[in-house]
Amino acid sequence: MNIRPDEHDLQAYVDGQLDDDARAAVERHLALHPAQAEQVRQWRQDAQRLRAALESVRMPGDNPALDPRAIRARRAARSRMRFAMAASFLFCIGLGTFGGWQARGWNASPGVPPMSDAVEAYRMMVVDGAAKVDFKPSSAGELQAWLTTRVGKSAVLPDLSAAGFRPVGARLFATGHGAAAMVLYENGAGSTLSFYLRPPESARQLMAAGERMDGPLLARYGSVNGMNYAVVGPADSLAQKAVVRALNQQT
């Protein structure tokens, strides 16, 4: 192992892939570098949350794409791409050739886009189909009762019927601060949106309303009744005026 551990060494330490001597060397290094120790602690928390979220998912055989290390690597790659794009945007602004754009909706965690867990959950359930709903309601009222029981009285479903979307199922997820839930909505054209609701990490981390693109997906997010939420789906579906109006009424 390198005398000074690099990112690969630190991630191997988090994943328990080092031998005793290498692990001891990393721990000595972290004891002298509190900033890196805090980063490693956050990585370990992320890994624990990913494992907790995936524990209840029945996998169709071994799927290496769903291993927590693979998911973290994809997130890191997307973060590097976003930073590269942001740098090019700032360069263009400096030249006076780029204008009219706004950066909005970033949260207090540097390098981590808001409600990334909601986007990953959408990909896992809708795009990849690696997990299924564990509750299928007979009505929106039945689903609301299920959500209240599992997540709390502050969990309120948005009414997207004016946009042609109806709730078709839900699934619970685990977070370090309590239960989260994702409700899937579908319309007659086969488009799927998700409403993801979870408790904030602290009362100071409620989210201002915002939106962001993540590849072909659009996420609209904010806080309601003391909880953070995101509605995720294809940009053309989520940009419908009726959907936007329903989410504005939610807050």
Structure description:
The protein is an alpha+beta fold. It folds into 2 domains: 7-51, no CATH class; 116-250, 2-Layer Sandwich (Phosphorylase Kinase, domain 1), CATH 3.30.200. It has 8 helices and 6 strands. It has a 6-stranded antiparallel sheet, with helices on both faces. β4 (210-214) and β5 (217-224) form a beta hairpin. The longest helix has 28 residues, at 68-95. This is Transmembrane anti-sigma factor. Keywords: Membrane, Transmembrane, Transmembrane helix.
Summarize the structure.
With 251 residues, the protein is of the alpha+beta class. The chain has eight helices and six strands. It has two domains: 7-51, no CATH class; 116-250, MucB/RseB, C-terminal domain (Phosphorylase Kinase, domain 1, 2-Layer Sandwich).
